Task: structure prediction
Amino acid sequence: MISNDDFHDEIGNDHIGTSAQNPIRPDAFELSDEKKIELIKKDVESILLTLGMDLTDDSLKGTPNRVAKMFVKELFGGLNPVKKPNPSTFENHYKYGEMLVEKNITVYSTCEHHLLPIIGRAHVAYISAGKVIGLSKMNRIVDHFAKRPQVQERLTMQIVQELQRALGTQDVACVIDAKHLCVNSRGIKDIESSTVTSEFGGKFKEDKVRREFLDYIKLDTQF
Result:
């Protein structure tokens, strides 16, 4: 009989997501960022000391504080809904009715199973139903949802759902092609492999429209 620890290790090692939304506790934002940094700093100190590191060394003295600030302010800053970008939209006055594609958006995220980087590119498209969104806002939406402990499938879905909400249309698509350092640098240590995920909404479920999008981003993967 498999133990709970073995079961949870198996889920993590196989990079299986278990929830469509980030599993965040209801009290997640009761502490200030400053208090979180203070607590995480102590935890990082404990980890390094347990590993046998000498924290009196000038190179390591500031590491716990640097890591704590990085976690709260940068790597996982997208957890805080206050930091969510305002995806301002505009009326499509020029009546552009074809596909708009923003490709090669840089993705820096963190695998929630091993807290190692996910690095890749996102390709996002939509067909206006009366509204358009600033191009930089598409990048900011990708970046916001990436800055969380993530699984790539969830990240892909969240980007599409946020754009659908902002634009008032189901006609949104996203493909992410990324390397997971939890696969590339540990475990199987396959440095060549990458993971491709996709989410197609509305008209993008139609083969012709989906194929046009994939042609734009020059991705040969079959969906």
In short: The CA atoms of residues 23 and 108 lie 19 Å apart. The first helix runs from residue 4 to 13. The mean pLDDT is 90. The radius of gyration is 20 Å.
